[in-house]
DNA sequence: GCCATTTGCGTAAGTACTTACGTAATGGCT
DNA sequence: AGCCATTACGTAAGTACTTACGCAAATGGC
């Protein structure tokens, strides 16, 4: 793939596909890792569960905001976690629209059990990035900020008037 | 999100989620751009269509390999492109299992019409990366190569025996 | 030539996100 | 207190990938 990788050759023109592919590849690898560790834990649960570990209690909306997903996605993950007995859900007494998630006793135990594995994955990832892709995280930070501040359509549009003028001559 | 971005704070521990999020964000922006250009073209078609532009005729398997997706995904895209009148499909006379895709006359016209837009997007992307995230592409190259050569589970496993020895003492 | 194995790919089902829709709750204003 | 714009989120449907399965064609060994 390295020598005949069309997407890589497309470079800046296929960044979306590139990120998507990487995401799929990493998820597959982490899934295999979880299977090897005899846990039913799902990769998509990770952001939610670790956020609850760190903060204790969070609403669907808070989770959605801090993870950068829609509330509908968090709702789905919530449903799975609840069925797996990993979380308890209750309405916030101060605002009954808000659904507050907390890890159940089982959820806490499982998170505690998996914490060393997560730490190892983070270590492996850090070493890999440090050695093979230094600066990757900072580059991703800046890229994210740039497309949020000034999205692609606006940037393309900003180039358009000049292009139109050139077409007239 | 920049100040309360849990995934960003998770750094190396949540790279998969990070890449997925970026992919989703870019796809949304490109979709908006296509809508603004009054085309029914879909972001997911881009790799397939541009590969056909450059190579003329390719089989499902060849496209899957060079784009880095499963043949099933290419099959789905093929179905959409066929329904949109963008491609012609025929069995390879030398190996009738192979399905060869080519752009139809309509597909060629549409690709030609969109080529300036694609070039602008690539330019915008290049300028953005050059200015805000220099080295991003090379870092992604090396990251991809690293996890393919030595996947995450193998790396974690390589750390395990040392970890076990430490636990015994 | 025969046949076990491999290859190519269509299709179904699963997975993990999104948007759209609708209902209930909240809070500001009169 | 009532009205209404806004907010929070569950659910359905849509989107874009994957794995699983199955069938046909091709390959290669005997």
Structure overview:
2 copies of one chain form a homodimer. Chain A has 169 residues and is mostly helical. Chain A has 2 domains: 36 residues, no CATH class; 110 residues, Orthogonal Bundle (Arc Repressor Mutant, subunit A). Chain A is built from 8 helices and 3 strands. A 3-stranded antiparallel β-sheet of chain A has the order 1-3-2. The longest helix of chain A has 28 residues. Chain A is globular, with a radius of gyration of 21 Å. Chain A starts with 5 loop residues before the first helix and ends with a helix. The interface between A and B is large, with 78 and 78 residues. Chain A binds a DNA duplex (30 and 30 nucleotides) through helix 2, helix 4, helix 5 and strand 3.
| Domain count of chain A | 2
**Largest β sheet strand count, sense and barrel closure of chain A:** 3 strands, antiparallel
Average predicted confidence as pLDDT of chain A: 90
**CATH architecture tag of the largest domain in chain A:** Orthogonal Bundle
Q: What is the CATH domain class of the largest domain in chain A?
A: Mainly Alpha
**Helical content of chain A, roughly?**
55-70%
- Regions with little confidence, pLDDT below 50 for 5+ residues of chain A: 163-169
Report strand order across the widest sheet of chain A.
1-3-2
Determine the number of helices of chain A (DSSP H or I, runs of at least 4 residues): 8
Span between termini of chain A? 44 Å
User: Can you tell me the overall shape of chain A?
Assistant: globular
Oligomer: homodimer
Measured by residues with Cβ under 8 Å of the partner chain's Cβ, the largest interface is:
A-B, 78 and 78 residues
Structural class of chain A: mainly alpha
């Amino acid at each position: 793939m390295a020598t005949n990788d069309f997407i890589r050759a497309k470079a800046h023109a296929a960044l979306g596909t590139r990120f998507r592919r990487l995401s799929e590849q990493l998820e597959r690898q982490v899934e295999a890792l979880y299977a090897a560790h005899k846990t039913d834990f799902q990769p998509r649960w990770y952001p939610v569960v670790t956020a609850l570990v760190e903060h204790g209690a969070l609403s669907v909306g808070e989770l959605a905001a801090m993870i950068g997903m829609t509330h509908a996605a968090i709702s789905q993950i919530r449903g799975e976690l609840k069925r797996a007995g990993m979380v308890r859900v209750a309405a916030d007494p101060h605002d009954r629209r808000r659904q507050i998630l907390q890890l159940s006793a089982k959820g806490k135990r499982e998170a505690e059990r998996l914490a060393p594995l997560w730490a190892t994955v983070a270590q492996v990832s850090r070493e890999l990035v440090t050695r093979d892709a230094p600066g990757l995280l900072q580059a991703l930070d800046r890229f994210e900020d740039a497309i949020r501040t000034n999205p692609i359509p606006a940037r393309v549009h900003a180039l358009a008037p000049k292009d139109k003028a050139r077409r007239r001559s």
